[in-house]
Amino acid sequence: MEGNGMRNASSRTTPVTTCVLLAGLVLVLVMVALQVRERFRSDMARAQAFAAQGSVIAQTRCGPIEYQETGQGLPVLMVHGSGGGHDQGMAFARPLAQHGMRVIAMSRFGYLRTPRPANPSPEAQADAHVCLLDALGIKKAAVMGASAGSPSAMQTAIRHPDRVTALVLLVPIAFKPTTVLNSAPPLPGWMDALLLRLLGSDFVFWSALQMAPDQVIRHVMATPPERVQAASALERARVKSMADRILPVSARAMGLRDDTGMGKRLRPYALASIRLPTLVISARDDGFGTYANAEYIASQIPGARFVGFDQGGHLWVGHDDEVRTAILDLLTAPGKH
To answer: Tens digit of pLDDT for each residue in 105-149?
Structure first.
């Protein structure tokens, strides 16, 4: 009898215990969700503040264009890559201002505060680059295009050669003939769709940065994460900053979608017509395969210099100082401008 009573008492308390445990679990989940929301909101506020820093809208004959500038001297127009904007461009090019350069970093069509026009082609974007120079009273400028910013940078040199003093192409997304071997396998269609989904939501991308930063570096930034891990603390910080500053990705989504489409419709340009001091840079392990593109471009532009690294990925990790030195050597060479 006594044993039965104990068993009955235990069975009567089991539902109560279960409810207490469930309530505790729900409370913990709510607290975690609130902490995640607060951290997300805080990180987004910082990202939005960074993206707005230095931002100015120029009213040009090609429409409004967002830009920022720093320094005095030789004008240099910095054309950012995918996931960027004036902020990404300035983060890379700002040190040039310490060497007698007037750096102008702009936001391409569909990025941040530069609206997307009906025709967002590289040719139209190149014309808009010149419209910005006109609005700023600049007759000539060196043009630097990074990644998906390279097509419009090349088109600026082709369509407006009298406005460009020198051309720099960093890890260029560009056409190459099928006779030139790929330096990396092309991305499958499902990967493009996945990346666009990842880069279409601030929260999804922020979550990926928190939970799988190495995968973001490998697939979104096309750089082997092991290269980053082996790099200096300064380089690791640069890569982290570049990844963090893709936020707010929602303000860059239209430009990202256009860049993805452009990458599938690349066509040959009149590279032989470019008669300007030209520097082309890439790394062999760039996951976007720009090494082969860069070699081809440099072979087609008369007198172009090609700088290739075996390692470094799309972010040229471990070579940031070398890249900037090569750019300065080009831009400050006597008698070239």
So the answer is: 999 999 999 999 999 999 999 999 999 999 999 999 999 999 999
Q: Which residues contact 306 (CB under 8 A, 6 or more apart)?
A: 280, 281, 294, 295, 298, 299
**Using CA atoms, how far apart are residues 154 and 170, in angstroms rounded to an integer?**
11
CA distance linking residue 46 with residue 50, whole number of Å = 6
d(CA 162, CA 97): 23
* Sheet containing strand 74-79, strands side by side: 56-60, 63-70, 101-106, 74-79, 141-146, 164-170, 278-283, 305-309
Percentages helix, strand, coil for the chain, rounded to the nearest 5? 55, 15, 30
CATH number of 56-184+252-331: 3.40.50.1820
Handedness of CA 32, 36, 37, 39 (dihedral sign): positive
Buried-state track 295-327, b at ≥16 Cβ within 10 A, e below 16: bbbbebbeebebbbbebbbbbbbbbbeebeebb
pTM of the shown model: 0.89
Q: Which residues make beta-bridge pairs with 214?
A: none
Residue 318 — left, alpha, or beta (φ > 0 → left; ψ -120 to 50 → alpha)? Answer: left
* HSE value, Cβ hemisphere, 13 Å, CA-based, for 177: 6
Q: Give the start-to-end residue ranges of the domains of the chain.
A: 1-52, 56-184+252-331
